[in-house]
Amino acid sequence: MTVRFHVLSRTIVVSGLTTLVLAAALAAPTRQAAASEGVALGYEGYFGGFHMMTADVQLVRNEERYRMETTAVGKGLVGWMFDWRSHALTEGAIADDGSYRPELHKRDIAQRGRRPKAILIEYRNDGVPFVARMRVGDEARFTERAEKRDTLDPMSAVAAIIDQMTVGARCAGTFKVFDGKLHYSVTAREGQADVLSGNRYMMFEGEAARCDLTLTAIDGFEEKFRGNPREREVVSDESLQLTMWFAAPQDGMPAVPVLASADTSYGGLRVYLSRAETADVPAEGARAEAGRPASRAR
Q1: Buried b (16+ CB within 10 A) or exposed e, 29-44
Q2: What's the longest Cα–Cα distance across the chain?
Q3: How many Å apart are CA 89 and CA 104, to the nearest integer?
Q4: Cα separation, 284 vs 288, whole angstroms
Q5: Alpha carbon distance 136, 88 (integer Å)
């Protein structure tokens, strides 16, 4: 769910929906897991039947903290045309009431050998985000965005939604998301569980829980969404629905996204889980190494 959703172009497909799918997996490790016990996941994305991207995810959460890092690379015709790759990292704390409190979110996207564009968000303790947008390697010049107080970055938002399923609650609720440019809401609604037949793209087959996420634009968009009404009860030019299915891909593993889909005017997006294994992942990394600016710690 990162960067430029206008006209459901390649940017929303690659950077938006893909990140949303990967972020959802953050709810996978249970709160009782040790800080070093994480999950490594692999996904393959297809758009309009064409191979679009491959992505790797490393993530961990425990009772107090969460951390997720993703890398996605364009593949097939899309990869050849746009030659893109993206990297994203989110770190934050989990409050006593179970709410997610992001502390750092950063991402960059590179296309055709150009110096990557980057967005960095650092959060003050009172929930106010400070945003810097630049080219990778340039000095980060932060702008306070007090009007976006208590919003979540995309990864934290979806993780918070799906975490409800991990603890046995319903997939429900509305969350305000701000990715450094775009401001939108994500509303979660529990769908009907289904049995997935599996295919050559997806490692899982069997019964899976369904969660429907509706994205609604608030501000920062250049143009409205243009989606296909299939799988939607409410059709709106300013909303887009993503459907996710969750299941444990292997014995002893928690539930993770095994399939995600969205239908748009430009074709259908399908993202399949292709690899899942346990991994040693630090619960805190970049933020601890860099330190948090004193001006944003109050």
Answers
A1: beeebebebbbebebb
A2: 53
A3: 8
A4: 6
A5: 13
Distance CA(114)–CA(100), nearest Å, equals 34
Q: How far is CA 95 from CA 65, 105, 275, in A?
A: 9, 18, 31
Any bridge partners for residue 209, and if so which? 246
Q: Measuring CA to CA, which residue among 256, 236, 240 is closest to residue 248?
A: 256
Q: Name the pLDDT band for 99 (thresholds 50, 70, 90).
A: confident
- Could you give phi then psi for residue 183, rounded to 5 degrees? -120, 120
- pLDDT higher for 138 or 241? 138
Distance, CA of 130 to CA of 120 (rounded, Å): 8
Mean pLDDT of all residues in 144-152: 96
Task: For the chain, give the mean pLDDT.
Answer: 76
In order of 165, 276, 296, the CA distances from 256 in angstroms are: 10, 9, 34
In one-letter notation, the amino acid at residue 98 is G
Going through the chain in order, the beta strands assigned E by DSSP cover: 37-47, 50-61, 65-74, 84-94, 100-111, 117-123, 129-135, 143-144, 172-178, 183-190, 194-196, 206-219, 239-247, 256-264, 267-280
User: In angstroms, rounded to a whole number, what is the distance separating the alpha carbons of residues 298 and 293?
Assistant: 10
pLDDT digits (tens, 9 = 90+) for 169-192: 567 788 899 999 888 888 888 889
Radius of gyration of the chain (CA): 18
